[in-house]
Design a protein that fits this description.
The protein is 35% helix and 6% strand. The protein has helices at residues 27-36, 49-57, 92-101, 112-117, 148-163, 197-212, 214-226, and strands at residues 80-84, 107-111, 139-141. The chain has a three-stranded parallel β-sheet with strand order 1-2-3. The N and C termini lie far apart (81 Å). The structure holds iron/sulfur cluster (SF4). Residues 47-49, 85-86, 112-114, 119-120, 144-145 line the site of iron/sulfur cluster.
């Protein structure tokens, strides 16, 4: 039972001499406490922000204080993806595949201006303007690059978010279609979107015919101008 202030109470009659020795909690609290203090990040970085992430794990900032020092070399053993660096379009399939290989519950922290929105390379032909176009992001850490302190603040924010979750509402225990929250990558407008493949084939065939018979096009122009 919970009071209006959120404190847990109990109907059980507790003797006075034992009152200080009994701790009342909920399954959600224990579940969240254990998860938030043992997040295992995946050991991968994309650009300069990764250097800041690496030194956050080293002795001076010491991620071990948060139970996060175990950077895993495989997504199958990680529950936190720190996207640290510029997301190029060439890297999109790899990032999405790594995310899909992580077991639930899993979280994503977007680190730095590049991962948040493209950063200084936003207008670049090869850079994605934000990793949240592909995978759901839980926490954004601004900066170019963010300092280790900023990353730690982002991680503490993530811990607070986890602490507010409830087993009854988290997506990974729901019975609905899981593809609802599994990302399907959409490539940029200058790359091929395979879902439009029929239209692309039709247009490619039309241009091929136009190139092979330019006279038919030329013949069509005077007609059009006469009209
Ligand atoms: S945000 Fe700045 S430091 Fe981080 S990857 Fe982009 S350019 Fe490098």
């Amino acid at each position: 039972m919970t009071t209006a202030e959120g404190a847990l109470t109990s109907d059980i009659d507790i003797p006075d001499e034992a009152a200080d020795n009994i701790f009342i909690t909920s399954l959600d609290k224990i579940y969240n406490w254990s998860r938030k203090n043992s997040l295992w990040p995946m050991g991968f970085g994309l650009a300069c922000c990764a250097i800041e992430m690496i030194c956050t794990a080293a002795s001076r900032y010491d991620l071990a204080r948060f139970g996060m020092e175990v950077f895993r070399a495989t997504p199958r053993q990680a529950d936190l993806m720190i996207v640290s660096g510029t997301v190029t379009k060439k890297m999109i399939p790899t990032i999405v595949r790594l995310y899909n290989q992580m077991p639930e519950p899993r979280y994503v922290l977007s680190m730095g201006a590049c991962a948040n929105g493209g950063g200084p390379f936003k207008e670049g032909y090869n850079v994605l303007d934000g990793v949240d176009k592909l995978i759901p992001v839980d926490v954004y850490v601004p900066g170019c690059p963010p300092t280790p302190q900023a990353l730690i603040y982002g991680l503490i924010t993530l811990q607070e978010k986890i602490d507010k979750q409830s087993i009854r509402t988290v997506p990974w225990y729901r019975k609905e279609d899981p593809t609802e929250y599994v990302p399907i990558p959409v490539l940029g407008p200058d790359l091929v979107d395979l879902r439009q493949i029929d239209i692309i084939r039709r247009e490619a065939e039309k241009s091929r015919i136009d190139e092979a018979h330019p006279e038919s096009e030329e013949a069509a122009i005077p007609e059009a101008s006469n009209a």
